[in-house]
Amino acid sequence: MQKKTVLITGSTSGIGLAIARAFAQQGHNLVFNGLEMDGEQIAASVAEEYQIDYLFDPANMLHPAALRTLVEQAENRFGTVDILINNAGIQHVSPIETFPEEKWDAIIGINLTAAFHLTKAVWPAMKKQNFGRIINIASAHGLIASEFKSAYVAAKHGLIGLTKTAALEGATCGITVNAICPGYVKTPLVERQIVDQARSHQISEKDVIEKVILAKQALKQFIPTESIAAMCLFLASESAATLTGASLSIDGGWSAQ
Ligand code: NAD
């Protein structure tokens, strides 16, 4: 692949960081984002390791103006954002009855609405150059539900709806839009859930992993972050030019049931 500019939200942790590493290894320009305190150092060390150009902007996904500035900065520095990966996300687990309203707003805002704002912001330049790749990191929860995850399931289903609509609109201007739907991946987001579930079920963390977290996955193992990164590289490649509007599962057989 020719050198491109790749903007990945939430790329200073977990899945986003693995995706950033994969694109950095191929020599692309990277725009890092995330709220980790050491985000700037994380971005700098990946850039140093692979000798690439980069930008780090801790834009908060809840602030539309900051998202527009994020894209403007990237375009001023590198020309266009060729590949946008909407990955930033948060989770909160609670029955609807007691689900905090501010958590609902934050989950919808970060996991869904930010993807709309960023898609809108990168669109004109992608359209002008008749090339763009947008990859939305959804979830198995974009296709099926689990109890106590109302906001997350709603946001991820919404993200798949946005993916399909944007794919139709992008079809005439060289922009493909796809979603990836991972099962459980052992990142800080899931590590926090393991601790919380062990406390609320009064069982060990090992039992939470085997009996709660991986209960629905036919393959009783976490999805490696590197596998999701490899899917992103493929979706960004020329070979995937006619793949659009799809929701690709990598969930150890969870959604096969
Ligand atoms: P993570 O907690 O390791 O990383 C999330 C990233 O998002 C971090 O960099 C964080 O700083 C950033 N972020 C959170 N709120 C933000 C905000 N307001 N503004 C800017 N950045 C913000 O989690 P992860 O597991 O790597 O999750 C990445 C994506 O993958 C999420 O969208 C998540 O829903 C999705 N996903 C994760 C799993 C899993 O099992 N871990 C499974 C399916 C889908």
From TrEMBL:
Assigned protein family: Belongs to the short-chain dehydrogenases/reductases (SDR) family.
PANTHER family the UniProt entry points to: 3-OXOACYL-(ACYL-CARRIER-PROTEIN) REDUCTASE (PTHR42879), 3-OXOACYL-[ACYL-CARRIER-PROTEIN] REDUCTASE FABG (PTHR42879:SF2)
EC number, as in UniProt: 1.1.1.30
Enzyme class name: oxidoreductase
Organism, as annotated: Larkinella terrae
Signal sequence interval, chain numbering: none
GO process terms (BP): monocarboxylic acid metabolic process
Family matches, as Pfam families: adh_short
Protein name (Swiss-Prot/TrEMBL): 3-hydroxybutyrate dehydrogenase
